[in-house]
Amino acid sequence: MRFRAKIVDLACLNHFSRIINTIAKLAKTCILRLTVCKLYFILSDKVANGGASMWCELSQGNFFDEFQMEGVAAEHNEIYLELVPENLSRALKTAQNAKAVKIKLTNKHCPCLSVAVELPSLSSSSRIVTHDIPVGVIPRRMWNDFREPSVPDFDVSIYLPALKTMKSVVERMKNLSNLIVIEANLSGEMNLKIETDLVAVTTHFKDLGNPPWASEDGCESNTQDRDLESMAEACIDIKKLLQLLAGQQVNPTKALCNIVHKRIVHFILLHEEVSLQYFIPAIA
Amino acid sequence: ILQCFLSLAVFGRAIHAIARISDEFWFDPIEKGLALRSVNSSRSAYACVFFSSMFFQHYCWTAVSQPCQKEKQLSLPCKLIIKSVLPVFRCVNVLERNVERCSISTNPSGHHITFQLLCRHGVVKTYNLTFQDCDPLQAVFAKHMCPNILKVHSRLLADVMIHFPTSQEEITLSVTPMKVCFKSYTEEDTDFSRTMLTEIQLSPEEFDYFQVGVDSEVTFCLKELRGLLAFSEAASVPVSIHFDRCGRPIAFSIEDLLLEASFILATLCEAEKEAATPEPACCPRPWDSSRTCMDKSDQTSMDRARIADTATSKKPQQKGNTPSMVSAKPSNALAKQEVKNIPRGSERDVPGRAGAAMAKFHSLFFGAVSYKEKEAIGDTFQSLVTASDTEEEFGALQSSQVL
């Protein structure tokens, strides 16, 4: 199993760092899956994670100037690593003006991702900062645990309001309640509601727009016959929602959520080269 | 009796830097200036900031009358609790804007040191702080005898330290004539599968002055150093690093016309690892307590209690320091060098231990200096603040530093 990659372009490096920062806010530990073309950051929906799960996918070609990997075996040319994204985030944090960043899978005291940052210096030779991030190698027999989640059979799909606005609303609601209800309909309306013994607060968003989903095989989706005004709702942990909103460092090109009534909320955030999906289950 | 006015920002930052070392510090005015000193509870870090009288807009110090007077006199120097002083200099940036003048004064009859801030709009803040009489502590460390000397702008050091997490306790500085490397330090029993390790390599060319007489790897406490780094960045002065092999102290110092600051930190010694009792030490444990020769003073009894504690506690990596191990050490030769610097006063106090102490000497030596010893000590006392490798105005201090 080998892996080495290099980033030379500063813009790519900054973009990559921002993605890692977002991942670090969502998961304490996650899986990094490496294939020839893509990188995936995966958080599976185990109870330990509070039931939330994440799937983030990026094309390596958009970030790395060099990318070589050799998986566990020829037919399974992939590598699954368990790591703490916060470590990676920290390693990249001080690489803002690096000449180059090299990432390599090594085995010193234990399997590590070695991040070597080459920084400019006043002298002729560069300064080199090396961070050894310990990783766990996931054996092939467990790879099935980390398959891409399918888009659920949702009742309503709606574009999200400006994330910054949504974040400031949810931040204030967090002080009042641990749970938040997201409800939306096919007329582009979304409400965020909290209710406690003392107070109930609702924030209304209008004219958000509903994304068109092409139905497969021509069969009708759940939403075809749905009443446009009827709201689908789910009550979720407000902290999980805030983690998602607070972690966004750049405005996504597209941000939408799919609500399965009283079951789960599925968020999809798309940037040019990155897609992030986050699932928050509803609390009964 | 002391009265002085000063420019706040730098003074405030010095207090903050010293606060990283300990909860209390020695406030020690002398004719030539004001010294602030601090040592941490495990005696593994010592800080001293000396402001020359020229640093102050107005500095007036008059000698204390003889202690035989009936009236209780303020006998300087004294010890202050940092927590009570910090609020005075809390937000240095704000201070600069709002405070027009700050004065520090003592008076013979009071039991206070008074810090008075004259602020804008006629607001006057007066802080009366109580203190403890004590004899000052001074580290004896012959900087000029260190084989390895690096001098670098504080900006570079800050740029290096920024790569380490703020929770990083200790780091290792490793030098050869070809390269310099700072890396995170982990104890032997660290769980590597959970710890992220960071290493920074620099070329000697980045240093303003680079002298490596002996390849060495020294490990010291980063947390305590951060105070000095912040201070030197604010003062924008180059930092000099003097050190030797592992186990010997490392000194970080800055100096310019108006002030001098030194932080001396003990380093871990890993050469001797005979049956080391691993202890999750935050910072390197102190050397043998018998080395800390204290003169008779109020402070001594308190410190003796502390010393007794450390003597009986487990001593991890610095094996050479336990009283039971008086084996010949390679550092013996160096130890003898240091012994020369022991003030005669303290040798008198602990005659029996001086010989044994030589074999065990590892790092830092503290001597208490009291007014009573003034005549006896004379010029043999080398103070940290006046290392003889620096040759500017403070050369004159060498003789007057004796207290």
Give an overview of the whole structure:
The complex is a heterodimer of chains A (284) and B (403). Chain A is of the alpha+beta class and 284 residues long. Chain A has two domains: 2-145, Proliferating Cell Nuclear Antigen (Box), CATH 3.70.10; 156-216 and 227-281, Proliferating Cell Nuclear Antigen (Box). Chain A has helices at residues 10-26, 85-93, 163-174, 238-246; strands spanning 2-7, 30-34, 38-43, 53-59, 66-70, 79-83, 100-107, 111-119, 127-134, 136-137, 156-159, 179-184, 190-195, 200-205, 232-237, 254-260, 264-270, 274-281. In chain A, α1 (10-26) runs antiparallel to α2 (85-93). Chain A is elongated. Chain B is of the alpha+beta class. Among the domains of chain B are: 2-133, Proliferating Cell Nuclear Antigen (Box); 143-266, Proliferating Cell Nuclear Antigen. Chain B is 23% helix and 30% strand. Chain B has eleven helices and 21 strands. Classes of the chains: A alpha+beta (284), B alpha+beta (403). At the A-B interface, α2 and β9 of A face β15 of B.
